[in-house]
Amino acid sequence: MDSSDAGDSKERLLSLDDYIEPTPGPFKARNARSVNLLRLWTLANLVLSLALLGLFLNQLWPRPSRINRLLRETSPFSPILETVEVRTFQSTIDGGIAAHSKPSIARLPPGPEADAAWKRFEEIRTVVISKSDVQRMGKDLTKAATFPDEQWGFGEDAYMGQLDIVHQLHCLNSLRKRAFAAAWNPKAEADAKEYPEWRWIHLQHCVSILLENLMCHADTELLTMNWIQEVDYPFPDFSINKQCRDFETLLDWQAERAVDMDQWMNMTKPSGVTIIPGEKEWFQLFEGGEASTAHDH
Questions:
Q1: What's the confidence (pLDDT) of residue 286?
Q2: Is 58 inside a domain boundary?
């Protein structure tokens, strides 16, 4: 083979090498795997960091926004649900008709024991709430009464609030007292004709309040029926299961925030406050009597 043939062969070999891709070596393959693992590791760390950040921020969030979640979803705004845990529990209603050996206060005969128990439940106390509370309750700030700072020293952001459930119990006790009036006054039936008109209107107000609340919170529980010895027809079983709220928690909340009762009863209307018209038909029924001085409803 002459020199020209040898040169042509060499050129052909070089040109073939140009079309053959080099095979990746072991080092290059390992390097590619390392890059992929590094990317996955970085992504995993990023996800973990975001999760930890979320948990940290969740702990920093004010606790009241997390309590009573289910109650807040089914209730209008109340500062109670923002500040104290209201326990719920299942309880069976005492639906028997006859009196028991350990009756509740509702079944106690009229007397000092029953009156003392009812007083604790129905005593309407006034608490301090904020401007924000009033706004979130959907009430008009220009009409909502504030505690006069010159009399109470609470500052400008001190509005008056009362527990509605206690007012409802006050109404129920008013009906109880009238129903058992003869226990306090044997001549109650005869005196009924002399019963002041404003008291009858007050009782009508109470019946209306209780009816509206019962209908508003209309329960969906059903009564079952039982066959009993004494009668030939099925009799309803009133002892049903209820999902209850801890009423004692509400009384404790009220007691901790209530203003002094004597000072409240002696408070005078300050000058410069917004005055709205009252129900003249109600206030014209008496002049200076019990209803005009008591701060109850």
A1: 64
A2: no
DSSP single-letter state for residue 218: -
Q: For the chain, what percent of residues have pLDDT higher than 90?
A: 55
What secondary structure does DSSP assign to 107-141, as a single string? Answer: TSPSSHHHHHHHHHHH---EEEE-HHHHHHTT--T
Q: What tens digit of pLDDT does each residue of 38-47 get?
A: 888 888 888 8
Range of 101's domain? 68-293
Give 134 or 63, the one with higher predicted confidence: 134
Residue 177 lies in a domain: yes
The stretches of the chain forming alpha helices (DSSP H) are 3-19, 26-60, 69-73, 79-83, 112-122, 131-136, 149-152, 164-179, 181-184, 188-191, 197-216, 247-257, 261-265, 280-283, 290-293
Interval 100-123 mean pLDDT: 86
Cα 228 → chain centroid: 40
Residue 91, domain member (yes or no):
yes
Q: Which residues pair with 224 in a beta bridge?
A: 237
Instruction: For residues 53 and 61, give the distance between their C-alpha atoms in angstroms, rounded to a whole number.
Output: 12
Reading the block at residue 62, the tokens are 């004010």
Number of domains in the chain: 1
pTM over 0.85: no
Q: What angle do CA 70, 75, 81 make, to 5 degrees?
A: 70
Cα–Cα nearest to 151, from 273, 60, 66, 42: 273
Does an H or E element contain 91, and which?
A: strand 88-92
Look up residue 56 and give its DSSP letter. Answer: H
In a domain? residue 33: no
